[in-house]
Amino acid sequence: MPADRLLSTLLRSLQTYTDQQDTPRLLATAASLLTTLSNPHNLSLLTSHLLTAPAFWERPDGLRTSLRLLGVFHSSITTLITHHNAVREHPAPLLHPGQPPIGGGLSIDAWARAIVSGADDRSARWTHLLVLGGLLIGMGSQEEQGIDVEWAAGLRKRLESALVKATNLALVEVRESGDADGLGGQTVALVLNHSFGCLSDFERTGLDYDLLLPVLLGTTFFSSEGFQSAYFLGGIDLDVVEVAGKKFNWPAHSSSFKQVESIVSRPLVASMGPLSRLMAHAVENIRDPWLIQTMVDDLAGFSRALTTQWRQNKLSEIDVSEEALFLEEEALRTTLPVLWKLLKAALFATTIVLRGVLGRILSDRILAADGVAPVLATQTLHTLRHLYFISNRLGPASFSQHTFVYLTAIDILTHYPIQSDAFLKSIAPPQLGNIPGHPLDRTLDLYFLNTAEHFTLVLSPATNEDLLVASAVPYLAAGGNHNMLPIFEAAHSVILAVLSAPQSAEITAKHLPFYIDALFKVFPDDLSPRQFRLAFRTLLRVTAPPSALSATQPDLPATLLELVHHRALHAPTAALAPDSVQLALAGSDAPPPPLSEQAVLVLTLLDALPYLPVPLLEEWLPLCADLVNLIDDDAMREVVKGRFWEVLISGEMDPERSSAAVAWWGTRGGREAVLFGRESEHVMSGALPVETAARESKL
């Protein structure tokens, strides 16, 4: 069919919407005509109709309609660039009889000018972005593939400039029409998300980020094309059913799972990584800093809704470690992985945006003001707390951006003791002294404990004792559940942080006996070797001179050493089960060797040596050497010997202690005791063996 007749037929089909229409066929026909029409007016006419056609826009399929139109212009210019490159290499390409020339015989500049002319006043301004964005993305994708487009560099610069201007006009239009969270705003977000990488740094500065940021935020987190204000979690509970064996299942054929699958496949959610980076860039370049505070409040509201919806779900009542026991195979293998994929996308997007916020606080004097910075830091930490049931599943340290946001917000807030006190009280466990039964509540307790240990230096002694110690005590002596090891260790870290605070001397004297007793009770079953060694080293530091406690209880360090020494003499020699750190390093080039309880206790004593007064150090160096030789396993003994040598030479000791240690090693039999204690009798350094002495006496 001739192109003109095909154009007329297509235009008539675009005038009405019918349930039976073949939309992909209409779009394919349009794409074909855009690359074959030779009359610029017809190209403009077709473009204009595509942007206003009732067949597409009367009942649009959300952003999928916009994405399809974007693809039409993308594929058209891709075809033209390929054709013009072929012509440049072969000036006279052969055409089949009746085949229309690609681009209608127009230059690519004339063709693009005709296409863009179709984006006129008869269509909404946000639809113009589909034309300009499609053309620019097409050129950018060709360049990324290594295809020569330098000959069209002028066109690309004009498209970049036009897209920025059209975006700003579209943002004004959607704000005035109240369509910021509707299809208009969603289309702006879609096009800019895909085309932002094609814009030069100079053109990016021309975007109105004050108008863009609210559109991006609303579209991503609160619109029907984004995370829907987290309400998608609410319908899951109705579809979680109990099956045989007292297990629960979330069927793949349920309506809630179909909805989750639909959300995951949405254009914006599927490309959430670039979109979140675009939002962070907007935060960094926004002119009105107060918009950032509004945005942070919105993110806090979204995360709070996410946690609330999750709590109302039966799935939240199952601990991660018990999912294999209480969930059906279909839920474990099919439905839950899709849900967690969606929740991780929400976590990553929120974290990346907050990274931009924290970076802006550090560089903006308005946001860094005393009345603003602690508020933003507090809201950031609240947001991370509400998302902790997701990040804790991943392991918070596995996401570097999350670690940066978390620690930076804490660092900012610690400069404001009053606000720090109020924040910790607002997130403290509602019932101090009890371990909650709900897994989500225990997760929130873990967040509180992990966060609280960073604030002990700026809190009052009363808050440290009444809030932090009281929150940690229930977990200190609790045992019997190895799956709760992270929260047990967090509780120990909080107690150690409180005891180490300079203002906590009275608290230390009051709670130290209880803590020492709890520490020895839970190791090694409910406390990892790494945490036990850290705890004991901290105790030595807070009890040895020049601490305030050492003045009233000078014998406490020696007593602690005796406790460990006595236990090491009778400790089991079998290798302990690997902890999380050992498991994480198992595949590294130098995985840590397995250690027994006895070896860990000896290492604990060696860790304490740099904190001992010199007289006590001289007493315990030979005792530690004797313990090293009690270890029967050669590999474990070599590890302990290596740590002994490291303590002596690594600079952990001050000059006075180092001198005493060197003297013991060199002239008092230390070297022989550590290196050869199991192979031969101890020989004093500088003395002659009996045989040698007898032989020399005859001479």
UniProtKB/TrEMBL annotation:
<dbReference type="InterPro" id="IPR055334">
    <property type="entry name" value="PEX8-like"/>
</dbReference>
<protein>
    <recommendedName>
        <fullName>Peroxisomal membrane protein Pex17</fullName>
    </recommendedName>
</protein>
<dbReference type="Pfam" id="PF26001">
    <property type="entry name" value="Pex8"/>
</dbReference>
